[in-house]
């Protein structure tokens, strides 16, 4: 079947959920989907911040924001139940919410591991589990439901900073995604990872102040930081007809950083 180029990337009318969508990478992805005509739901732990972002993004289309704590099973199920009150199906789930903890090997606390793994790994799994009925209601042979998880190129290499829980959690979620891709294929669902490189988040801005932009850009062949449209474009590709036959993939969006590692 022939598809005009524009329709290959059409996500208009799709119901899209972006966790951690109030700022950073999540906001960039949510904005991309809103501008592309999707109906977008975002969540974050801070209700005021989430509602503010949703109101701002609503200038470009339809966006709704809700507070949710996805770091535990109860929070994941509660958020899924909130969505089920408003939608009969979800076409795209973007697992973006995540935590990071930086500490020396000698002082790295158990609480740091728990906080990172509870959200970055367990949170992804249990939200997918809770969202199964909504995703299954959308899934068809020709147009699968999509699960897109934000990983990291730190899962491909040993990072410079002491982020032991974070880097290993991202490696875990990459493998979890491959496992989901295999097990959910017969339910007409795809599962893929977007692995960002250096994105100008608040954390990176702090590092730039300490180390300088030139130093931070040195290992990146394309010599710039990732921006919202870069991540949104990758997510829209995976959510559209163009990406409907892609599953179990790890897609670096890093300016070529991973090629130098």
Automatic annotation (TrEMBL):
It comes from the Bacteria. GO terms for molecular function: oxidoreductase activity. PROSITE patterns: ADH_SHORT. Gene3D superfamilies: NAD(P)-binding Rossmann-like Domain. Pfam families: adh_short (PF00106). InterPro entries: NAD(P)-bd_dom_sf, Sc_DH/Rdtase_CS, SDR_fam, Sec_Metab_Biosynth_SDR. Keywords: NADP, Oxidoreductase. Signal peptide: none annotated. The keyword NADP applies. PANTHER family: 7-ALPHA-HYDROXYSTEROID DEHYDROGENASE, 7ALPHA-HYDROXYSTEROID DEHYDROGENASE. Belongs to the short-chain dehydrogenases/reductases (SDR) family. This is SDR family oxidoreductase. The lineage of its organism: Bacteria, Bacillati, Actinomycetota, Actinomycetes, Propionibacteriales.
């Amino acid at each position: 079947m022939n598809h005009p180029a524009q329709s290959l990337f059409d996500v208009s009318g799709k119901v899209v959920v972006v966790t951690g969508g109030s700022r950073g990478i999540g906001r960039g992805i949510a904005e991309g989907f809103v501008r592309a005509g999707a109906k977008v739901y975002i969540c974050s732990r801070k209700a005021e911040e989430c509602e503010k972002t949703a109101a701002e993004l609503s200038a470009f289309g339809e966006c709704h924001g809700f507070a949710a704590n996805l770091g535990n099973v109860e929070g994941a199920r509660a958020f899924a139940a909130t969505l089920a009150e408003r939608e009969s199906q979800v076409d795209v789930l973007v697992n973006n919410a995540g935590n990071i903890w930086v500490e020396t090997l000698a002082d790295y606390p158990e609480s740091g591991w728990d906080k990172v793994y509870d959200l970055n790994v367990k949170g992804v799994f249990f939200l997918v589990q809770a969202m199964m009925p909504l995703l299954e209601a959308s899934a068809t042979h020709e147009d699968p439901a999509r699960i897109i998880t934000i990983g990291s190129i730190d899962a491909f290499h040993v990072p410079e900073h002491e982020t032991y829980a974070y880097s290993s959690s991202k490696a875990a979620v990459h493998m979890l995604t491959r496992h989901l891709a295999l097990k959910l294929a017969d339910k007409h669902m795809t599962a893929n990872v977007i692995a960002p490189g250096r994105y100008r988040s608040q954390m990176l801005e702090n590092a730039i102040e300490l180390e300088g932009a030139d130093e931070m850009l040195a290992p990146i062949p394309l010599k710039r930081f990732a921006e919202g449209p870069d991540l949104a474009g990758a997510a829209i590709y995976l959510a559209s007809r163009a990406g409907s036959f892609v599953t179990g993939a790890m897609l670096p969006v890093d300016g070529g950083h991973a090629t130098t590692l």
